[in-house]
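Suppose a colleague, Dr. K., hands you the sequence of a protein chain of 280 amino acids and asks what its three-dimensional shape might be. Before reaching for any lab equipment, you can write down a predicted structure in token form. Begin with the sequence itself:
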Amino acid sequence: MNATRQQVAVVIGATSKWQADGRNTKLAHGKVLDDSDLPVGIRWGIGGALAQKFAQEGFFVVLTTRNSANAAALEQAIRAQGGDSMIVELDLVSPASISQAFATIRAHVGDPDVVIYNAGYLEGRELPPEKELLEHIPLELFDTAQHIASRGPFLVAKEVLPAMRARGAGTFLISNNASSLRGRKRLTGQSLYYPRVMMRTLAQVLTEEYSEHGVHVANVVIDGLIDSPGTRALPIAQQRPEVVMNPVKIAEAFYYLHTQDKSCWTHELQLTPFATKPSF
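The predicted structure, expressed as tokens, is then:
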């Protein structure tokens, strides 16, 4: 790789569980939705908007997903817009899968300049009202949430931060939510999100450890309902469209973080719709 090589951005979790055929969409609506009349920027939630934004800015974008078919339409959309991308399968529950995925990325396009950890999960949403209390939560459900919210970003960071440190430059951004700010009771229809506190804590630790080496780490609290095919069809989004967050604008905020001057880095950014009070 020479000094003028194309910059590389890796989006961990490039597609949304709320996309037209996503797991949450099927759970909430009982069917696959038609997204053909929706703007291309929102069809894959935040991950898709991030991938499209960085591709539009000239990055080679790596889309990671557990099953490559999940990101095929997103990759086609990026290429139709004149961008460059590839799909790499990555299962965050498997350390071997994470290592293999980044070995593949390094072999094809080199060490990434930007890594965005945007992995999500729906575990907990399927539990009925009488199963809201912790005593009813199966251990395997908790384990999955921990894999995605805590161990996953830890393992991804170990894969990418050494090269960023050696280079003296790099961006590692974490897509998080309001449940990372403090522990809250899980309500019916919500994921088991309190492990997200660990995700935020990891971002704080990495900020202290790697900022001095030129690596920009930030935790982004996305404090609201994100537009996508599945969420747009929910009653609250239909009744109160002003509380729905535009993933294209969220992606612009992530790109802003990446382009900040080293003299004034932001390490936590909270994004909240104007019509709602910020979570604390």
